[in-house]
Amino acid sequence: MAAMSTALGFFxxxxxxxxxTRDHYRPVQEWFxxxxxxxxxxxxxxxxxSFRRQGITFTVYGGDEGTERTWPMDLFPRVIDAxxxxxxxxxxxxxxTALNRFLDDIYAGEQAIVHDGIVPxxxxxxxxxxxxEAMNVAVPMGARCLVAGIxxxxxxxxxxxxxxxxxxxxxxxxxxxxxxxxxxxxxxxAFSDLAVRSVDHYGRSLLRALRSIAPxxxxxxxxxxxxxxxxxxxxxxxxxFLARSMGVELVEGRDLVVDDHVVAMRTTRGFERVDVIxxxxxxxxxxxxxxxxxxxxxxxxxxxxxxxxxxxxxNSVGNGVGDDKAVYAYVPDMIRYYLxxxxxxxxxxxxxxxxxxxxxxVLERIDxxxxxxxxxSGGYGIVIGPKATDAELAEARQKILDDPxxxxxxxxxxxxxxxxxxxxxxxxxxxxxxxxxxxxxxxxVIPGGLTRVALxxxxxxxxxxQGGGSKDTWVLGSPDHNDPGVLSSPDQTGAKAPx
Amino acid sequence: xxxxxxxRTRFAFDAPVRESQNEMRACPLSDERQQLLSYRVTVEPSAxxxxxxxxxxxxxxxxxxxxxxxALEVIAEASVETQEPRPLATGPPLDTLKMPxxxxxxxxxxxxxxxxxxxxxxxxxxxxxSETNGSNVTSAVMEVSRFVGDKLSYxxxxxxxxxxxxxxxxxxxxxxQDYAHLAVALCRSVGIPAxxxxxxxFSSDERTGSIDGDLVRVQTHAWFEAAVPGLGWLPxxxxxxxxxxxxxxKIGHGRDYDDVPPLRGVYSGPGTPTVDxxxxxxxxxxxxxxxxxxxxxxxxxxxAPRTREQQQQQQQ
Lengths: 499, 316
Description:
heterodimer, A: 499 residues, alpha+beta, Dna Ligase, domain 1, five-stranded mixed beta sheet, 22 strands, 29% helix, B: 316 residues, Immunoglobulin-like, C8orf32 fold, five-stranded antiparallel beta sheet, globular
């Protein structure tokens, strides 16, 4: 399979501007060059069968009702060299540290960043994700974004940019681990001569982070549980996967009860006190006493228990004020304000549409920009100017005028490209990267993350809900790094069937 | 004026419920116009109480009952001293409402909320009110309050919580909540920050504010406050056209009713409840010490409810 040529305006991950394979991609490229068409097809078949057997699927909403598909992992891996990763790791730790500080300042602090005039007060009060019900609920160590997924892209010059922050319930880590397990089985030889850093410790790292935010009074052996909305949720597979890899209970709202402001879970052995809840239920459904009163997914009284300090909830309630896309525009200011540092990984160029002059410019050039709703995730509601019809642009203009606070605009980022299998050959496709960052006693980045790929030719939409696929992401170990870089299958120790 | 307030809600279920979790906002706050002297909460069946101050500054008492029960009664008793309001100062001109800092600080009180979603008709009415009368903010707010009092006739049971405010205005009937929501909506529609206030009114008739004797049996009351640049929050009671004064005891404020409901909660089980809520307010001799001691602010355990007989003695 031949290497592709570079195209103007796009950064190619695997080849340089002269068409030569970049050093860190050479072993992988050479390995794929030796494969025949039949061999690739056989590998694809093997992969599909394996994912199907394990039930690794995801649900696509919209159009027809939810459709179940097997997870589309492309065989050609993404490779990040040690030096580049070291920069990304520093940048991600910096960003998540600042966001934790910001959220703690807003909910449990003095809102110093508002009083000091760095962000306007209305930026906070106008966020749909600002949960007044979470006001003054303390979180040990201020680890409010216990799991953060930061979406990165590379622009036309190959520079990394943060496209958005996901601080509520970022999903995808199970696919990172499953992709690695699948690649290890399918292509063991492709890893030869490369020290690829392991991702299998995620369950242990997550459990450590969760235990670290347990209420101080609960002792040395806090009980952790994963709270899921149930089997009909699109990410249920991941909820079960995470509970299993941590060796903790997977519970639904009806399995928990709050008694005298203490959370207990029903088990076969009777009631057991729960100290830390890793919830994968949105804020609005978490506790019908204070949020959506018709929710049957949540736990009545849970917020009062959190306020009483008998249980810790991760991610913290109200994190939506940190990943609102208008707030995102202020993250570089937060980094300067809280950390006294300059931003290592810059934002994409962003326009705030409630600012009159910026709005005027956007309305004029809307056909060249990307317009996004501030509080959505998963690629929903996005209008890509260069690809939109006149009617779609007119509709976007009207929506901006009706509610400017609800929208931002960004310059189109020409996502970088990497070969992906296109039926009978490898062809360049656009990719992004969602690294996962854990906050607890310290901030830790899992090497790599979820590389998403737009499988349709020319498409810039990588969301799996919108026809995107994924790739295994290989971070190469550096000589001075302690990580042995040995690959292994996902950690199954302490494995427990989901309840 | 020294007022002793007893707020009582009783749920009677026709079949046992397994669990109920509730939040009560019934405690008078202390501010420049009133001082809370004592406050006590009693729940039957007994339950541990978690008390805290919410985002809006209102005291919340949260309690859950996890044993099967067919009745739940909560009583909040408060003693409060109220004062006359400050004399009204002449308001600043309307264009001061456009000051960017003022708008930034009050963003959440300028927006629509579920119960204050105004329409074109209301905006037009509010515009007329604010422009006809000397065009200063205080007089505009007073005009709005007067307009609401004229527009609605007091009719208990004529509206439901959740009915759009524009529909209520068109029907021309309502109770104190509707008066307050309509006034808030009108103010916001012309850029005057306004908030909904929940509280108690010492009066034998909510509609007129008249007082007959030293003991009244009422429901919780509602009015509104508007932000006047340079002067602060101006409270007005559109239901009875009274200036907010010694008869008014404020519990708290928010964007609308949903931010300060006296009681909200969920229960699980087959039973459906009959709710009986009442408020008794007694005017006291100001020299008598408060009858109920202050409760510790957090996690006050209320494990031994007094008998009904004792409670009645308490209120005398």
